[in-house]
Design brief:
single chain, mainly alpha, two-stranded antiparallel sheet, 2 strands
Length: 334
């Protein structure tokens, strides 16, 4: 076991070296825990220990054989199971309470904020603290997570959510498991909300949540403001805010899923998967668009990003076209 030395009352003591996950996609870390470019051995084994620089590195299937990634995926699955079980209980209770919609939504938003922030703090050092396929997909499209890691994380998160849902159903009893029929944040009243409307709402709320989560939890430029210590709290606030806004937007819509694994688990235990594909497809579209925007103006590149290159090209084209017209103007006048 690797050790480090420290002095205690004039004596040298040995202690185990802290095993901190080096991962560019660590939520809340704002890329403060990435590998040095000189650490070739680590980057060959785990290319996403630093922001990825090529698609080849991202799709290196040899990373499936990395035991550390499997261990991190296992912890992601455990975290997903515990989180879904913890928040699934209040979701069941809220459907039976005789309270206003706003009061229920506010309670759900606050519990989501606290739970997500604490779980991100807990799992950030060991797996990156994703606990959500949407976050994993977003980091993959942004070049902060390899394809093998994304596959293993999403599989583990989904399995953990399904296990949590069935344990929750076993604990409360099948008759009491979302007895009203609707699962907040997952199912909708199809007589009031069409599939197209559901997809639009899921896409926009998902994109908003991912955009804000990246801004406060994965942008290295935030290190100058609050560093990695406050990032998980802000990530929890963003998801709680979107939960609050989406749940009261219209009758029949119970709020944005934001976490397709959660809906997969809770809906599977209910044996009701109608329109569940929307949760995945909408998040896939939202995270891929966020990835395109991220690559347009990446925070970790010194050279001009794609958007600046396009703007400079258009500016030069307009300038040349204007000069050409100015040269031709006297000829037409004569």
């Amino acid at each position: 076991m690797p050790t480090t030395s420290s002095y205690n009352n004039g004596e040298i003591t040995q202690r185990a070296r802290i095993a901190d996950a080096t991962f560019a996609g660590r939520v809340g870390g704002n890329q403060e825990f990435i590998a040095s470019p000189d650490n070739i051995s680590l980057l060959e084994r785990q290319p996403d220990a630093a922001p990825l620089r090529s698609l080849t590195a991202s799709f290196n299937l040899d990373n499936f054989a990395d035991g550390d990634i499997w261990r991190m995926a296992l912890l992601e699955g455990l975290g997903s199971m515990l989180l879904i079980f913890l928040l699934g209980g209040p979701a069941i209770g809220l459907t039976t309470l005789d309270q206003s919609l706003f009061a229920k939504t506010l309670y759900a938003s606050l519990t989501s904020w606290f739970a997500l922030s604490i779980f991100t703090f807990c799992l950030g050092p060991v797996s990156g603290g994703h606990i959500n396929p949407s976050i994993t997909l977003a980091t993959f499209f942004a070049g902060l997570c390899t394809f093998p890691r994304a596959v293993l994380y999403i599989a583990a998160q989904s399995i953990g959510a399904i296990i949590a849902a069935f344990l929750l159903k076993l604990g409360v009893g099948g008759d009491n498991y979302f007895e009203a029929g609707l699962i907040p944040g997952c199912t909708v009243d199809t007589t009031m909300v069409s599939v197209g409307q559901m997809f639009t709402l899921e896409f926009m709320f998902g994109l908003t949540a991912i955009f804000m989560a990246f801004g406060v939890g994965l942008d290295p430029r935030q290190g100058k403001i609050y560093g990695p210590a406050f990032g998980p709290v802000l990530v929890g606030i963003t998801l709680g805010l979107v939960t609050l806004c989406s749940a009261i937007i219209r009758p029949g819509y119970t709020g944005a899923s934001l976490n397709p694994a959660r809906c997969l688990g809770l809906m599977t235990a209910k044996y009701e998967l109608e329109n569940h594909w929307v949760h995945w497809v909408a998040q896939l579209a939202a995270t891929s668009l966020n990835g395109m925007l991220y690559h347009t103006a990446p925070p970790w590149r010194k050279e001009d990003p794609l958007l600046s290159q396009v703007a400079n090209y258009l500016s030069r084209y307009i300038h040349l076209h204007k000069r050409r017209n100015e040269r031709q103007a006297p000829l037409h006048h004569e």
